[in-house]
Amino acid sequence: RSWVGSIYELGFWSGRWKDQECIDYCNNTTWDYLAHQALGSKMDMDNHDPTNSQTLDISGYENHGAFNGTALTKNTDEWGYNLPGTDEYLNYGHDASLSVGDGATDGDGLTISYWFRTADITSFRGLYKRGAAGQEYQFGIAASNFQGQVFDDSEGGYIGRRYAVTDLLPNSWYNAIMTYDGNGASSGMELICQGTVRATADSSSGSYIAMEPTSQNLEAGRYTTQYANGDMAFIRVIRKGLTPIQAMDLHYREKLLLNQV
After folding, report:
1. Can you say whether residue 63 is alpha, beta or left, with left for phi > 0 and alpha for psi between -120 and 50 degrees?
2. Which of 12, 63, 169, 233 has its CA 20 to 30 A from that of 41?
3. Do residues 35 and 42 touch, judged by C-beta distance below 8 A?
């Protein structure tokens, strides 16, 4: 039997798509995820502002990262900043755009992404909106485990995922992504490294309803009195959970730029 008609954009993929990936593709919204970012800190020379001691945010929300510490320096021959691990960190403030939940729901979710390089792969304080003024989310390495959590400040509980970083090598650049679809459960979160979804374990405690806005600053390279020792680049906060296809696309977009220096 013959068929007369037109076929556009015929493609084949090696794995089964998630439901959301099918929906995005049919709605032509697969590649627009960066339109949802609240922080886009490229950390290149074009967005380095030494006069005002900050690295510029290109998301449109002006969540610029203020330099803190005695020896934070811009890498001049490559992307990112060096944080020696004494008292150096970047402070992105607490604008409302950096808060995702409203206390009742977590909306479209949250994605945190950054590149890092460190000599001590057992610990790296990545991105934290958690401290004395409140707790909303965090993503970093502690006790040789990547740990991503979102917090309910009123209830005191949290949900999240973790996995051991035994396959990572010291002094190499890695892209780390925490993505959460906003479903209110640890099952809605995935941790992704180098564009690959990792097998993770549950990391939750207490009662959790949703994140809520707090006055806690978002900080890169510090959690309380613990500091990252290494380099960071391409820090992003996206007010949307990413699918594996989108996370892989983000990884390779930034990897291309990282390798061009």
Report:
1. beta
2. 169
3. no
| Distance of alpha carbon 64 from alpha carbon 41, whole angstroms | 8
Q: Which of 45, 204, 222, 33 is nearest to 131 (CA)?
A: 222
Q: Please state, in angstroms and rounded to a whole number, the distance separating the CA atoms of residues 204 and 223.
A: 19
Closest CA to 112 of 46, 48, 190, 45: 190
Q: Are 38 and 61 in contact (CB under 8 A)?
A: yes
Rounded CA separation 109/183 (Å): 8
DSSP annotation of 153 reads: T
Strand 48-49 to strand 54-55: parallel, antiparallel, or no bridges (unpaired)? antiparallel
Are the C-beta atoms of 213 and 102 separated by less than 8 Å? yes
Q: What is the pTM of this model?
A: 0.93
Q: What is the CA radius of gyration of the chain?
A: 19
Q: 75 falls in which pLDDT band (50, 70, 90)?
A: very high
SS3 148: strand
Looking at residue 157, its pLDDT comes to: 98
